Amino acid sequence: MTPGPLLLFAAAGLTAGLVAGRRHAPAWLGFTLAGAVAALVAAAQLLLGGAPWEWRSEFAVAGQPLHLRLDALGALFLALVAVVGGAGSVYAHGYWSDRDYPQSAPRGRLWWNTLLLSLGAVLLSWNGLHFLIAWELFTVAAFFLITLENQRRDVRAAGWLYLAASHLGTMCLFAFFAALAARTGSWELGPMRERADLAPLFWLALVGFGLKAGMFPLHIWLPSAHANAPSHVSAIMSGVTIKLGIYGLLRTAGWLPVPAAAPWTLIVLGAVTALLGIAFALAQSDVKRLLAYCSVENIGIILIGLGGALLAAADGSTSLTAGAAWGRLALAGALLHVWNHGLFKSLLFFGAGSVLHATGTREMSRLGGLWRAMPWTASLFALGAVAISGLPPLNGFVSEWLVYLGLFDAVTSRSPAAWAALPAAIMLGVTGALALATFVKAGSLIFLGAPRTAAARDAHECSPWMRGPMVAVAAACGAIALAPALCWPLIARAAGAWQPGWADLTPPASLFTLGGMQVALALLAFAAGFALWRRARADDVTRQLTWDCGYVVPTARMQYTSDSFAGIAGGWFAWILQPQRRLRRPRGLFPEGASRMERVPETVLERLIGPVAAVVMQASLAVRRLQHGRLQYYIAYVVVGLAGLGTLVVLGGGS
Amino acid sequence: MNAYLNLLIGLAIGLNLLALGSSRLPSLINAVAVQGMALGAMPFLLEEHINWMVALVACATVAVKGFVIPILLRRAMRTANIEREVVPSIGYVPSLLLGAGGTIAAVAFARTLPLLPEHAGSLLVPGSLASVLTGFVLLIGRSKAISQVCGYLILENGIYLFGLLLIHATPLLVEAGILLDLTVGVFVIGIIVDRIQRAFDSLDTRKLTVLRE
């Protein structure tokens, strides 16, 4: 089958799920999964070398004829939507079931399918107006998914912030597409590199798409939205929807000429986003907020790769000369990281959701010792944590390694790009180390040690509905990790759709070495784990409390808390984190009580955007006082306005 | 010809001041009715050759402004059971001063305008501006719905006066259309006044602010 009927089938499956979702959860799951599988097959056909699929129709939507097209680049993102969408559907069936949430579960299924459909529509539309419609639909669907638990105040606040911020981005996109249509005379999208006058529009697209991607400092909506949404929604938002911001940037940079400063800006923004994102993640005590900030970091890594690719492409050489080779590596790293981050971030959010489901809290300082109660969740979360920290032998290492390789080649090429590549590579290294610290903290606080509260003690393993998708996503992570050379042609085709000269399907030789090393390391780790497991099962091993530090009667409260664990590294970033501390010292010979509280605010939101927004609100309220509903005064406004205009005309006519 | 016209316009300006100074609603309505009739008669003075179309529209204007609308307003006044404007936002003396000042300003302003020679001597432009200003003062300064309708009618009379400048250029059909709108508007207002009175026991539009937005 060609992609066309498959995509039609996928759309039909998702629509059928949309209709059935109100009443029949199993039917919804079946339809949605069938749709996701069809979309995945269609995407796979293109990535395996199929010709781009194109469909034009005279049928007009909103006055514009339909024009759908799927090329390898769109297919790369469509595959991610299908995989995470399908896994998330299965997960939601167990996690947000009708039994637990009779009110919101049917609503959730409805908006879930709307979200998947609109994500697909964004990827297929080659008409600016239809792109905007699909974009807006997906924003609104995500809003309703975030606010499924709308009886909670913080959920409503998070949803509102998301909606407001998203619409700021959408406004920029409206301006972008409208200006594009005005200058080209048509809403049709496609390559128009020769129109140099379109270059400044890139900045509008950068704000619009960057806001959706969670680029620093436009990330303000992201942590609260991803933390407060139900976990399967967090997974698709962190794993997939923010990547559509990257997709938009890729398309813009691929179709339109970009300003000379754009690649440098992207690299700088990427480095800042990565470093500050992970610094904030390290300081969080809420596990889902930590994961959300970590998404900001990964977007930074992808932006560095994208910036490198643009820099190489701007050198003028579109063929595979030495100059462009490193750009292609950076782009391949960024594209592969889109997949990888989508996979392991949804795995981690699924894991966090299982913990939340089992214990009812996201505060890491209230958890602990869950490995024994939830071995599946714990080991899969650990796998995801290793992957996201960019450690071999998992897939995060492969894509970050490709980005590194591109940056190092840029440094050795002695082109001007070296000036950006060298600091970016260093920042990337720092980011990786901090990511490792962050996930050591998250993993050890949640799963190791002793339970800190009764809720953590009574935790239970998640149901197979939730475990299944986690295993599936983890398996996909493992597949990319162990056979990176097999993934290369897929990524290279997507890169070729972006920059036609870059579609070289033979993997770099070092990728085979990397694959072999990854397999060897994985085998080694597996053998070591197995040996340790055997040792631990032996009869002569006595079990002790973790971290008892030699005390006679250790208690669970002696363990590291979230803040004490991150204390030192957090101190390096105190200038941006601005932690608020409250200390009550013990006083006197028999101190009665002492406490130390620490809270990391949303610095950008509370210190920068908050005050500005407060001033704007005050001004708006003052203006609002003019609107009191008294007709007489309204007429007086009209008279004053007319008199003013008249005076202006008379004075203007005199001069 | 021009002298008669100016006489009628002077009458309309005088009626403006009467409308501004009277606190009783019946005299306000009467002032508006007489002004409407005076204005309706003007096309007979302006046109040298009266054709049946102009005559028809002029007669209709006199009938509607002089009789239909006043009757509707009086009926609304009776159903609402009010006779006078009790607390105007702009008092009667200040209203009169504003109206008088506005009329003087209108005359002064009209001299500076580049008018056609045949309009230079007439009071058409100052009278029109003065009526518009009077209408605005009534609309802003009165709080009862019926007085505001009267203010609106005077405002419209001012616009009509200005339209007479262009009597050779625009067909009177346009004027007829405006007349129809006006009648329907007053008719609807009459019904609304009745409803407001029944629902809220008051016709003070200042109290009708809760339903904004």
Describe the structure.
The complex is a heterodimer of chains A (655) and B (213). Chain A is mostly helical and 655 residues long. Chain A has 25 helices and 4 strands. Among the domains of chain A are: 1-179, no CATH class; 607-654. Chain A has a two-stranded antiparallel sheet. In chain A, α10 packs antiparallel against α11, α10 packs parallel to α16 (418-447) and α11 packs antiparallel against α16. The longest helix of chain A is centred in the middle third of the chain and has 38 residues, at 322-359. Chain A is globular. Chain B has 8 helices and no strands. Chain B is mainly α and 213 residues long. Chain B starts with a helix and ends in a 13-residue tail after the last helix. The A-B interface holds A 627-633, 635-636, 639 and B 89, 136, 139-143, 148, 205-206, 208-213.
Helix content of chain A: over 70%
Tell how many strands the DSSP assignment of chain B holds: 0
Low-confidence stretches of chain A: none
| Largest protein interface, residues of each chain | A-B, 10 and 16 residues
Run of helices and strands of chain B: HHHHHHHH
Structural domains of chain B: how many: 1
The helix/strand class of chain B is: mainly alpha
What's the Cα radius of gyration of chain B? 17 Å
Distance between the termini of chain B: 51 Å
Principal-axes geometry of chain B comes out as: globular
| Residues in β-strands, percent of chain A | under 5%
Class based on secondary structure composition and strand pairing of chain A:
mainly alpha
Taking the sheet with the most strands of chain B, its summary is: none
Largest sheet of chain A: 2 strands, antiparallel
